[in-house]
């Protein structure tokens, strides 16, 4: 079974997988693309034999809505870390911001952040980061299909972006801030789609559990 589940903020993707195992009494459960604890939105979960389909689903393009706070950089590039740098925010308008956002369209490379679930030599980077260890990370190829400014006020840029597998929106946010001659970190992130799976069709865990039990499982 392939499930389009809504992951709320404050929990890990693994927590969602663990709950599906409990609800469905299914040992073989996996997800198609990690969402950070502070992020919310579409998390595709596969059970049983359908976990094999997750590889293809993971390679699908994804769409995110993000909020980037300018002027403060955290060590995790998101609200879960602590501020490591502050910088004045220059006078900006929508035209300047749009020009910078559009400069990211197309193919480019990105260096994965230390605070990520990506594995290097068998170790998750965030495990090393928590030990204040930083190692060299190989750049990865990414593609930004579209990026659109949604709002700008109080030094917070709200934008929507469609991107390829492996794109870190936290890194994109940091890079956007740098091109605007300041620093910045994400304060919110919502994944609204994974391929053909939309947030509008996603199901919350409590609803899934209730409906699963109503079927006599």
Class from secondary-structure proportions: alpha+beta
Shape call: globular
Task: Give the helix proportion (percent range).
Answer: 10-25%
Q: How much strand content do the residues show?
A: 35-45%
The DSSP helix count reads 6
Radius of gyration: 18 Å
The name of the CATH topology of the largest domain is Pseudouridine synthase
How many domains comprise the coordinates? Answer: 2
* Oligomer category: single chain
Number of strands: 14
Task: Describe, in plain words, how this protein is organized in 3D.
The structure is a single chain. The model has no long low-confidence stretch (mean pLDDT 92). The strands form three sheets. Strands 1, 2, 3, 4, 7, 10, 11, 12, 13 and 14 form a ten-stranded mixed β-sheet that branches. The chain has a two-stranded antiparallel ribbon with strand order 5-6. It is 24% helix and 36% strand. It has 217 residues and is an alpha+beta fold. It has two domains: 2-59 and 195-214, Pseudouridine synthase, CATH 3.30.2350.10; 62-190, Pseudouridine synthase, CATH 3.30.2350. A hairpin with a 2-residue loop joins β10 (140-153) and β11 (156-163). α1 packs parallel to α6.
């Amino acid at each position: 079974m392939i499930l389009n589940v809504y992951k709320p903020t404050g929990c890990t993707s693994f927590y969602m997988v663990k709950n599906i195992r409990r609800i469905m009494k299914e040992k073989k459960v996996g997800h198609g693309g990690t969402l950070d604890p502070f992020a919310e939105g579409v998390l595709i979960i596969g059970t049983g034999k359908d976990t094999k389909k997750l590889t293809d689903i993971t390679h699908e393009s994804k769409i995110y809505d993000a909020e980037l706070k300018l002027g403060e950089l955290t060590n995790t590039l998101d609200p879960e870390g602590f501020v490591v740098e502050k910088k004045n925010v220059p006078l900006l308008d929508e035209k300047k911001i749009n020009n910078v956002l559009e400069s990211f369209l197309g193919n480019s490379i990105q260096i994965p952040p230390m605070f990520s679930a990506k594995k290097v030599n068998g170790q998750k980077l965030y495990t090393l980061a928590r030990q204040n260890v930083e190692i060299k990370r190989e750049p990865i190829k990414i593609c930004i299909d579209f990026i659109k400014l949604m709002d700008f006020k109080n030094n917070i840029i709200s934008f929507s972006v469609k991107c390829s597998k492996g794109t870190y929106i936290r890194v994109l946010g940091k890079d956007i801030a740098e091109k605007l001659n300041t620093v910045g970190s994400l304060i919110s992130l919502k994944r609204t789609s994974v391929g053909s799976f939309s947030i509008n069709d996603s199901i919350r865990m409590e609803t899934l559990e209730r409906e699963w039990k109503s079927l006599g499982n």
